[in-house]
Amino acid sequence: MKGGEMLQGKVAIVTGAAKGMGEAHAREFAKQHAAVVLTDVDTENGTRVAREISSSGGKAIFVAHDVVDEESWINVIGEAERALGCVNVLINNAGILIRKTIESFSLVDFKRLYDVNVGGTFLGCKLIVPSMRRAGGGSIVNVSSVSGIVANMPGMSGYSATKGAIRMLTKAAAVDLWQYRIRVNSIHPGTIRTPLNEDYFSDPEQTRLILGSTIMARPGKCSEVAAALTFLASDGSSYMTGAELVVDGGMIAV
Ligand SMILES: NC(=O)c1ccc[n+]([C@@H]2O[C@H](COP(=O)([O-])OP(=O)(O)OC[C@H]3O[C@@H](n4cnc5c(N)ncnc54)[C@H](O)[C@@H]3O)[C@@H](O)[C@H]2O)c1
Fold first, then answer.
1. Record's SUPFAM superfamilies (predicted)?
2. Which of 115, 117, 183, 247 is the most interior residue, by most CB within 10 Å?
């Protein structure tokens, strides 16, 4: 497996790693010599991706995981420690998107979005602490979105609320956790083409609306977010905590 050594010696958990950006992050982390624990509710794809990483020379395992469930988190962290050692990187990437304008958004949908996106991130930040303390510190990166900073398209009220909550949860957790040498940052991708938003791109008018305000006028690639995330996970970002890193081709700059 060719790659750098930015994450040499790190044990990293990536949630939602069966596809989309999480898969790209897990693959890049393994290339950068991290031992990676891929987790997801999608066990079939998660197992396949972990197997592919291992067979190309990387170190990876898959553990089935539902981020809304505390017991499931305890199992993932236990499996990670048993197989690979104490965890020093956690990427809270798993997330869902439900797009409906606010008047048609049900409370049931809102609560589900909140449970997965915010509840899952909260549980990860909380439950990883003992393992990271045993590791002597660590880096947590919470995947928010440009929708956690601006509201620039319709139908995003529930999603934006969760991503804004993740942004502030990150800063508050950074305050609490530096005493253990744990850094906590958020990353804010713009429009990245993944299974989550494939429906946007089936409609040219919708695509034009979304990308019209982006300086680079194209969607991002998963690998472009993975590169920024690798930096936040690595010791190269040692003076960053409570920070937000925007990776959006210039979408919210204008
Ligand atoms: N795609 C974009 O344009 C974009 C932009 C900004 C932020 N994001 C965020 O990036 C993250 C990844 O998005 P993506 O586009 O790769 O999505 P995706 O749908 O391609 O992948 C998300 C993964 O999370 C998993 N998942 C969903 N619910 C889960 C749960 N309860 N427990 C464990 N795993 C669960 C899914 O099975 C899937 O494998 C999400 O947090 C998303 O909100 C995406």
1. NAD(P)-binding Rossmann-fold domains (SSF51735)
2. 117
Which of 84, 82, 10, 73 has the alpha carbon at shortest distance from 41? 73
51 forms beta bridges with: none
Query: Tokens 């499931």 correspond to what residue?
Result: 72
pLDDT digits (tens, 9 = 90+) for 67-82: 999 999 999 999 999 9
Q: Is the CB of 69 under 6 A from ligand 1?
A: no
- Of 114, 159, 200, 239, the catalytic one is 159
> Which residue in this structure is represented by tokens 């809270």?
92
Whether 159 is a known active-site residue: answer yes
**Relative to the CA of 115, which ligand 1 atom is closest?**
31
> Cβ of 99: how many Cβ atoms within 10 Å?
16
Contact call for residues 120 and 93 (beta carbons, < 8 A): no
The CATH code for residues 11-247 is 3.40.50.720
Helices 157-177 + 120-127 axis angle, to 10: 10
